[in-house]
Amino acid sequence: MNKLNFETVDTTESNISKIAELFPNVVTEDENGKSIDFELLRQELSSQVVEGNKERYQLTWPGKKEAILMANTPINKTLRPIEEKSVGFANTENVYIEGDNLEALKILQESYLNKIKMIYIDPPYNTGKDFIYKDKFSKNSDEELLDSGQIDEYGNRLVVNADSSGKYHSDWLSMMYPRLKLARNLLADDGVIFISIDDKELFNLKKMCDEIYGENNYINTVSVNAKVSAGASGGGEDKRLKKNVEYVLIYAKDFASIDSLPTLYKESELMDYIRKMKLDNKSFKYTNVLYKMTDVEEVITIKDGFGDDIKVSKVNDYEIKSVKQVARLENISEEEVYNRYYDKIMTTTNAQTSIRNRVWEATEGDKGMFIASFTSKSGKNKGNIKEYIFVGKQKVLVIWLRDTTIKKDCKIYKQEKIGTYWDGFSWINVTKEGNVRFENGKKPIDFIIQNLTLANCKDNDIILDFFSGSGSTAHAVMEYNKNKQTKLKYIMIQIPEVVKDKEYLKYLSEEKMEPIITDIAEERIRRAGSKIKEDTNADIDYGFRVFKVDSSNMKDIYFKPDKFKQEQLFELENNIKEDRSARDLLTSVILDLGLTLDLSIESKFIMNHEVFYVAKNTLIACFDASLNIDLINELCLDNPLKLVLRESCFKSYNDKIYVFERIKKLSPNTEIHVL
Question: Collapsing DSSP states into helix, strand and coil, what is residue 397?
Answer without folding.
Answer: strand
